[in-house]
TrEMBL record:
Recorded superkingdom: Bacteria
Name recorded for this polypeptide: FAD-binding protein
Entry-linked InterPro entries: FAD-bd_oxidored_4_C, FAD-bd_PCMH, FAD-bd_PCMH-like_sf, FAD-bd_PCMH_sub2, FAD-linked_Oxase-like_C, FAD-linked_OxidoTrans_Type4, Oxid_FAD_bind_N, Vanillyl_alc_oxidase_C-sub2
FAD-binding PCMH-type domain location: 27-206
Keywords for this protein: FAD, Flavoprotein, Oxidoreductase
GO molecular function, one term: FAD binding
The organism of origin for this protein: Nonomuraea diastatica
Cofactor: FAD
UniProt family annotation: Belongs to the FAD-binding oxidoreductase/transferase type 4 family.
Amino acid sequence: MSSLSEARVLTDPDVIDSYARDRTFLEPGKPAGVVLAASRDDVVTTMKWATEHRVPVVPRGAGTGLAGASVAGDGSVILSLARMTTIRELSPADEIAVVEPGVITADLDKAAREHGLMYAPDPSSYEISTIGGNLATNAGGLRCVKYGVTRDSALGLEVVLADGRILDTGRRTMKGVTGYDLTGLFVGSEGTLGVITAATVRLRRAPAAPPATFAAEFGSLRDAGAAVSAIMAAGCQPSLMELLDRATLKAIDDWRNIGLEPSTQAMLIGQSDATDAQAMAARMEELCMENGAAFVAVSSSPQEAEELIGLRRLAYQAKERQGACLVEDVCVPRSVLPDMITAIEAAATRHGVRIATVAHAGDGNLHPVFIFEHGTIEPPPEVWAAADEVFTHALELGGTLTGEHGVGLLKQRWLALEAGPVATEVQRGIKAVFDPLGILNPGKAI
């Protein structure tokens, strides 16, 4: 990689190690170096060199992933895209933006709001995660119940292939069916098919008035799940619907002293950004009370609304303070959400494991977090046994192993249970077309 400046190629082992991990407990191998790409040309140069020398490349954003997709292996080159932070274009007339992969998700949303628009996907890590990482994992977020996941906002991509060729996919228009959907194929591919160097994304009109938010406390998780089903069945169309179990609330309370009541076993946080947001929030409050809520608070100001949403965004950090975390994200049909919640509780009891669960409840995406002792190299056998049970039950209910975090390394052991032999063969064939040497993020996703 002689054409890259020395400042962009890092070989110090201690510095390399800081780029080799994500937010999982997984230990990386011993990578050979790090490339700090500042432009598409840097990525092209890196991939051409890697192809010539048959060196594996691990693309990386901010490293906020929770599945091990950016954990580096032995002898690999880590390709960091965090310095590619330009918003190349923001078109209010067309309601699109063209952004580089290192742009922080919240920064794009902030830039859009200056024009009365917003970038809808908002993973809980939106203040630190990058657009490139969101695209690589097809990240969801708190607003996905109404606006969909990252793929639903991705119109087109600029991708550097394994051999250094540049592929443009998709379009700038809201509609388009020419050819195969290569954009959709790359979104969620976890860096195994190509390196995304720019994306054309859809922006949406920001709500004209501040959203209305409520928080409801329940004596059982099952009641909270029933309230979610009732709200969705009533056609309330919440823009956010988040469920927190007692273990999660207790972790937040231990950290921030939120005044958690002994009887509270679950909290449901919902929001409406409709034109009649206050009326919708009031209707959702009624439905919560009808389904066993002990208490419901509705925000009376944007500040109060942000405080309620802030509780949800504290969840993962609060759990990390209590131990190492195996974070999962099964997704099931909304109608069986209460059954999945019950199964998670049963698995925790049966195996004597601490599981703290939050959920993007409006679309059935649950995050059971298995907490074990800090400093443990990997989860103990009882944690894996409980996780096996949770994943198996999710699939039995017609669900999926991952709703938004991706497969990475963590879910490799369960992948065959969902994919099946035919799907696995087809996906391997697709991988061979785009990456015949197998140098892009080897061992991940498929």
